[in-house]
Amino acid sequence: MTNIIHQILEFFASLGYLGVALGLMIEVIPSEIVLAYAGYLVAEGHINFVGAVIAGVIGGTLAQLFVYWIAYYGGRPIIEKYGKYILINKHHLDVAENWFLKYGVGVIFTARFIPVVRHAISIPAGLAKMPICQFTLYTLLAIIPWSILFVMIGEKLGKNWETAKEVLAPYTPMLIVIAVALFVVYFLIKKLVANKKNK
Fold it and tell me: What is the rounded radius of gyration, in angstroms, for the C-alpha atoms of the chain?
């Protein structure tokens, strides 16, 4: 990991819980790294586990709301022009938009666990003017377990927190399967409710 990223993380660490939240809000560094580093800080006794998770959830949710608002008020042209500054390129945007149009609002939850799509899925939600309360709920439901997972991994790894992504890599397919299964359940429930209304 580069010295610049280390310096940024050390600056965030000096801010405690606020630093964890800010690290996720500005999205200069991927959320997995920030959360794993927060777990390391927990292991070192600088912050506690619950506080780290809460800070992670707040920061992660605000970051996604920020992207949602940009798409909501600025539209796709703004995203295509400035998306690179929040680590989103045109390919990410195209994939996320296709997923949203194909699977509907439920994908806001499941896509958070799937590479490529999860960083950009807030954009089509904003472009489609998805109700903000619904968007926030689905985002929270996904970010809570995501934050718990990486803070826990970072705490367990301690000084080896930088290997968090490599440690999780073998379990990524399982996470994707679980996310897809949850989406299928959501889709079936939604279909049953719609069928009852039509009767």
Answer: 17
